[in-house]
Write a structure and sequence with these properties.
The complex is a heterodimer of chains A (about 240) and B (about 400). Chain A is an alpha/beta fold and about 240 residues long. Chain A has seven helices and ten strands. Chain A has one domain: Alpha-Beta Barrel (TIM Barrel), CATH 3.20.20.80. Chain A is globular and about 45 Å long. Chain B has two helices and 28 strands. The chains are: A alpha/beta (about 240), B mainly beta (about 400). The interface between A and B is large, with 80 and 70 residues.
């Protein structure tokens, strides 16, 4: 199952992406507060959701990319960033009537850790535990599951940090940004994502726009064999 | 070799621990503020240390205790310098547990509900002020903004502190409140006061992490959405939004964005993920004076966030080299043309110009620190076991 992540507008992107790859994505992963480009979904959730629906990939995954120096910081910073992330998810959920939680009750919430960023245990544990404990929309189902986007072989701590995290702070999944052999939406490379020792890699960003000279404003992602990323995204029941 | 070889082997000397947030530099870069939090028997003790940037020695320090804060609370501290004033404001986001409940959460692999204890939290803000002349700390002044998101944005001029906050959306908010959920609040506090002289709705987006600078007029500009500048009148709170056309371009990968006010009244903005830097005239509606385009570097988002710097005289912009080659590049601000480049194949992830004029490039692999002259001649490298998130 392949899909896109992008910091561009879905409604302005999906046509060119379809022209380039000739197929519909299974999902879109979008940036939520606190992140650069978080405004796109936050301020235009309905338009973005219509774009996702019209693209044929009516599943919206969630990532947050705080200012990267914060990730090596304190528990207070991790807690504050997770609080804003959860609030942004709730605001989008309320703003788009047919935006539903995954049927399996597990919405993967990714923290963006770039290659050159160091992740501290204080930050991660506070970030992860806040999300895991968040009573989303008062439903009492606690559907947010912390996950980590990272380059597992970076010299800075990422896998080692999450390996030490206890209980629900341990991420459910890793989304690996390496290696980048490129490929296309319909012909992704054979599964070869970098991985951590303890946490399984379930999503692989195998082609970034800049590295792979893609004309559409998208990066390409593929799920691990047997893993359906769309099942862990917000889903649109109908066109908003 | 720069710094001298001996410096590379000198062991780091910690000047503060348990930092509550990243350090903050004064507008003239002469002082760096470090805020630390210690949980003590009657609350949270916040200590502000002001380092002389050249000697890295503690020039001033003061502390304040927020009483009644439980030991498992989170206290986020944001120091805010005020150009033209000796007052350093401290914005405190205080988040406390308000309930622990046994809940049932689906096991990630089986989906079966598993009982666990979940904690609910509430945040509000408080202010404190440190006078660099007297060494006196005043406050804390608690604001009645609970439930609030802990993330905020703050800036100060010679007389006021401007603070952007956002109400935390609640699950049971009525529809009318939900419709307002995307609105933040801007409050203006006279320096030293816990009572706002002005409080008004602020346009989106939510505050938290966006670059913000104080302009020579005393008004405050924040760079939002990676392409718009919101200029806020410190006197009335009125916000004027301007688009920076050169920053309009977006890519699939988000980008760090930076904004720096310069002594001549111009503002330098960078968006390395789009390969763009802009020098704008703040006094002329942020009209673009110079617009530089450069190849996107390999790491437009990762730490450190400083990917491009403008020389003190404003003649040359230094930036990380293209993703394909790495190294560094220099552009002539007058013509926008590439003036020099250097690459030995290394990909750097952050770039700073030191007070000496030398450039410091940073990468995760050792040697993590590489020094260059202003004409991009390599001066030397240094290994370190420190994880470099930013340079001050």
């Amino acid at each position: 199952m392949t899909g896109y992540d992008t910091a561009g507008r879905i409604q302005n992107t999906y046509v060119s992406a379809h022209r380039e790859f000739g197929a519909n994505p299974s999902f879109w992963i979008r940036y939520f507060t606190p992140s650069p480009a978080a405004d796109l979904f936050h301020e235009a959730a309905v338009a973005e959701s219509r774009g996702a629906w019209d693209s044929g990939g009516p599943y919206v995954g969630c990532i947050s990319a705080p200012r990267q120096s914060r990730l090596s910081g304190s528990a207070a910073e991790g807690h504050a960033d997770a609080q804003a992330f959860a609030a942004a998810l709730l605001t989008a959920y309320h703003a788009v009537r047919p935006l539903l939680l995954p049927a399996n009750g597990q919405l993967y919430c990714w923290l963006d850790q770039e290659y050159s960023t160091s992740l501290s245990s204080s930050y991660w544990n506070a970030w992860a535990s806040y999300l895991a404990d968040y009573n989303f929309a008062g439903l009492g189902t606690y559907p947010l599951y912390p996950c980590l986007y990272c380059a597992p072989y970076s010299p800075y701590p990422n896998c080692s940090t999450i390996a030490k995290s206890p209980g629900v702070n341990k991420p459910v999944a890793v989304w690996s940004s390496t290696p980048e052999p490129c490929g296309s939406l319909t012909r992704p490379p054979r599964w070869n994502a970098a991985h951590c020792a303890v946490i399984p890699t379930r999503l692989w960003q195998f082609g970034e726009q800049g590295v792979c000279n893609l004309s559409a404003n998208v990066d390409l992602d593929v799920g691990a064999p047997g893993f359906a990323m769309a099942s862990y995204c917000f889903r649109l029941k109908y066109r908003p | 070799m720069y710094p001298p070889p001996r410096a590379a082997s000198t062991r780091p000397v910690p000047v503060a621990t348990k930092l509550a947030a990243a350090p903050v530099s004064s507008p003239d870069q002469a002082v760096t503020a470090l805020a630390a939090v210690d949980m003590v028997h009657d609350g949270a003790k916040i200590t502000l240390r002001l380092l002389d940037a050249t000697g890295a020695t503690v020039a001033r320090q003061g502390s304040v205790t927020v009483t009644g804060v439980p030991g498992d609370a989170h206290v986020l501290v944001t120091p805010v310098f005020a150009p033209g004033s000796a007052i350093v404001s401290l914005v405190l986001a205080i988040t406390v547990p308000v309930g622990k409940h046994v809940v049932r959460k689906g096991h990630p692999h089986t989906g079966h509900p598993v009982p666990r204890v979940a904690t609910a939290w509430r945040s509000h803000h408080a202010l404190a002020y440190f006078d660099q002349r007297s060494g006196a700390m005043t406050g804390p002044f608690h604001l009645s903004d609970e439930p609030s998101l802990a993330l905020s944005t703050a800036a100060a001029n010679g007389s006021d502190l401007l603070l952007w906050t956002t109400r935390e959306p609640q699950p049971d908010d009525p529809a009318a409140i939900r419709a307002q959920a995307s609105l933040s609040r801007l409050s203006v506090f006279p320096l030293g006061s816990g009572k706002a002289r002005l409080s008004t709705s602020a346009p989106a987006p939510w505050p938290g992490g966006e670059p913000v600078v104080t302009l020579p007029t005393g008004d405050v500009a924040r760079l939002v959405r990676g392409r718009h500048v919101q200029v806020c009148s410190a006197r009335t709170g009125e916000v004027t939004e301007l688009e920076i056309p050169a920053l309009r371009q977006g890519r699939a990968k988000p980008s760090a964005v930076t904004m720096q006010a310069r002594p001549d009244g111009t503002v330098f903005m960078t968006k390395p993920g789009a390969g763009v830097a802009v020098l704008a005239d703040a006094a002329d509606s942020f009209r673009t004076k110079t617009h530089i385009q450069f190849p996107v570097p390999a790491s437009p988002l990762g730490a450190p966030w400083s990917k491009a710097v403008l020389s003190p005289a404003g003649e040359t912009m230094y930036v990380l080299g293209p993703a394909a080659t790495g190294g560094l590049c220099a552009y002539h601000m007058g013509s926008g043309k590439l003036a020099a480049s250097y690459s030995e194949g290394r990909q750097y992830h952050g770039l700073y110009q030191l007070p000496s004029g030398a450039l410091l490039a940073v990468r995760p692999e050792n040697p993590r620190l590489a020094f260059f002259s202003a004409d991009l001649s390599p001066l030397g490298t240094a290994d370190t076991n420190l994880h470099v998130s930013a340079i001050y």
